[in-house]
Amino acid sequence: MKVMVIVKASAGSEAGVMPTQEELVAMGAYNERLVEAGIMLAGEGLHPSRRGVRVRFDGARRSVIDGPFAETKELIAGFWLWQVRSMDEAVEWLQRAPFNPDGTEAVEVEVRPIFEDDDFGEAFTPELRAQEQRLRERIERIERND
Fold it and tell me: Shortest CA distance to 102 belongs to which of 43, 5, 20?
């Protein structure tokens, strides 16, 4: 199963506080273990919300809302995409993450399963499945620079 591991924003991440070299080294080592175990598919940190925008869809109207956004606890500071056997395995790996070793600022991380084709039932017709497969193949070619 694929999961998205969502690192919630904190006051520090929203203020643009960058990780120390020590924190970068620890996270790099953790990410290497994830890759070696075949778990990590992707992962990135995000800039503070002041550098982002939201697009609101209201019927035919579209409006752009500039950051920063309120409610830090609802914002995302980064993410991973993982391939795991179960939610329990995801939690086991996540508990090894080198977040907040000194206890100065709590970090909250959410793990959510990613929909798989069969989750959509009959609505996901053979034609739609074929289209999805073509798109995935195109994305892979772009990533490989083919």
Answer: 20
**Cβ pair 40, 79 in contact under 8 A:** no
- Of 27, 7, 26, nearest in space to 111 by CA: 7
Ordered structural domains, the chain, with CATH? 2-114 (3.30.70.1060), 117-146 (no CATH)
For the record, the structure tokens of 95 come out as: 């508990």
**Closest C-alpha to 42, from 120, 139, 133, 119:** 139
Residue 121: both structure tokens together = 């039932």
Q: Could you report the per-residue pLDDT of 91-129, keeping only the tens digit for each?
A: 999 999 999 877 788 889 999 999 999 999 999 999 999
The tokens describing 91, both together, are 């939690």
CB atoms within 10 A of CB 34: 19
pTM of the complete model? 0.88
